[in-house]
Amino acid sequence: MRLFPLFADLKDRRVLVVGGGSVAERKVKSLLASGALVTVCAPEATPGLRELQGQGAIEFTGLAFQAECLEGVWLVIAATDDREINRRVAALANEKRLLINVVDDPGLSSFQVPSIVDRSPLVIAISSSGHAPVLARRVRERIETLFDHSLGALVALAARYRPAIRQARPDMRRRREFYDWLLDGPVAGALRKQLPEAAEQALENELRQAQGSTRGRVALVGAGPGDPGLLTLNALRALNEADIILYDRLVSNEIRELARRDATQICVGKSPGENHDATQARIHQLMLEHARAGQFVVRLKGGDAFVFGRGGEELEFLREQGIDYEVVPGITAAMACAAYAGIPLTHRDHAQSLRLTTAQFSKDTTAEDWASLAQKKQTLAFYMGVSQLDWLPDRLIANGRSADTPFALIENGTRSNQRVLHGKLKELTAQARRHGFKSPSLLLIGEVAALAPKLQWFGASIGPQELTSAPCASTTPK
């Protein structure tokens, strides 16, 4: 580590900025945000700097740099476009043992200005030691996504209650547990929902509990169809905070690897042929058991918890048991798989409506239902449809859907082994059997499916006769 990281308190301390251009203006504004008393030394200045001078926010000399400008300052930034002037400023600053930053010239600098993630009073600084500022910016962009903007309010709240927390939890271990609860529990959740009064009330209620016990909670998190890049930021945060993860069978390993390393992961996925009601009852009991033990439980579901999952049932159970919960939506399979296959679910020329349904319905579905499904100018998205392919196409055709209606069958949608089979409805059963399509597969039926061979950009495409790769396909999800 060549540079020693530190945070400088510049409030009411004089800082000299040499230069009056746009770069100098950016540095000045950052310094003013920290409370520094800024002097700008330059013969000319940008309109923005002139405006700050007019407001009395800065002192502007209007003169070229002289050694006397360094008197009484704590910190110096050289931001001119003349390297000789910058070199002279740096040499004189070093003689006076003043910390100096020369913009874009680490060789002349004794400190670097980092990229900043501002969640004040929490501030995160990133430095590449001045050698790769673009890389530092990219790292900052990634870190920005990991920390919700409500975190600053949480830190401020914790600071305000710090004496009360120390008094109520004098034991270090119990105090550490309390701060874990503060970061992971209902206080942080209320602040994310813009409910500051509820957050403060929850904190005070917890402080009043003599034992300081941690209350558990459950988050229903949609993991999407498989590509980890499709996780929402809130889903990623939940995975990094979870104590217990109850995951479905179809949640990809790549997504599970993003979870907190010491989290306990329990597979609760349902398998074909088993008693799904009994499995669901076990899931309910696991959520209850771990939440009552004070743990943060993530119920991780493929796709979205509220689209052909049992998310509603699970929330009803948690509410009955008095367990705190929240929901993190996921991208449902119809949206993601269609997009990765290049199929717009709606199109003003081909489909004005969309039906999400499951092929796991009874063959005794009413004639009216079948007639509705067979209407033209709509897209049908069938979840869990592979086991029904022997009879589903014939039933749709018998109820009025044209045998030449285009279809697309998407296996392992959004994953590296995605395949898309496309053709006409009358060919669906034979083609799916010929090419060995298996679960998980999503079936799209409708005029928009004819666009798949032309617009597909990802994975393998199978036409009636051959297997090809998409002409512009990526091998890795974006």
TrEMBL record:
Please list the residue ranges annotated as the Sirohaem synthase dimerisation domain: 150-207
* NCBIfam families, A to Z: cobA_cysG_Cterm (TIGR01469), cysG_Nterm (TIGR01470), PRK06136.1 (NF004790), PRK10637.1 (NF007922)
Q: Which domain of life is it from?
A: Bacteria
Record PROSITE patterns: SUMT_2 (PS00840)
Metabolic or biological pathway, per its Swiss-Prot or TrEMBL entry? Cofactor biosynthesis; adenosylcobalamin biosynthesis; precorrin-2 from uroporphyrinogen III: step 1/1; Porphyrin-containing compound metabolism; siroheme biosynthesis; precorrin-2 from uroporphyrinogen III: step 1/1; Porphyrin-containing compound metabolism; siroheme biosynthesis; sirohydrochlorin from precorrin-2: step 1/1
Q: Which GO terms describe its molecular function?
A: NAD binding; precorrin-2 dehydrogenase activity; sirohydrochlorin ferrochelatase activity; uroporphyrin-III C-methyltransferase activity
Which lineage do the record's taxonomy fields give for this organism?
Answer: Bacteria, Pseudomonadati, Pseudomonadota, Betaproteobacteria, Burkholderiales
All copies of the Tetrapyrrole methylase domain together span 218-428
Q: List UniProt keywords, sorted A-Z.
A: Cobalamin biosynthesis, Lyase, Methyltransferase, Multifunctional enzyme, NAD, Oxidoreductase, Porphyrin biosynthesis, S-adenosyl-L-methionine, Transferase
- Protein name, as recorded: Uroporphyrin-III C-methyltransferase / precorrin-2 dehydrogenase / sirohydrochlorin ferrochelatase
InterPro entries from the xrefs?
4pyrrol_Mease, 4pyrrol_Methylase_sf, 4pyrrole_Mease_sub1, 4pyrrole_Mease_sub2, CobA/CysG_C, NAD(P)-bd_dom_sf, Siro_Cobalamin_biosynth, Sirohaem_synt_dimer_dom_sf
Cited Gene3D superfamilies: Cobalt-precorrin-4 Transmethylase, Domain 1, Methyltransferase, Cobalt-precorrin-4 Transmethylase, Domain 2, NAD(P)-binding Rossmann-like Domain, Sirohaem synthase, dimerisation domain, Siroheme synthase, domain 2
* Reactions mediated catalytically: precorrin-2 + NAD(+) = sirohydrochlorin + NADH + 2 H(+)
Entry's family note: Belongs to the precorrin methyltransferase family.
A Pfam family this protein belongs to? TP_methylase
Which segments constitute the Siroheme synthase central domain? 119-144
Annotated active site: 248, 270
Q: Which organism encodes this protein?
A: Pollutimonas bauzanensis
GO terms in the biological process aspect are: cobalamin biosynthetic process; methylation; siroheme biosynthetic process
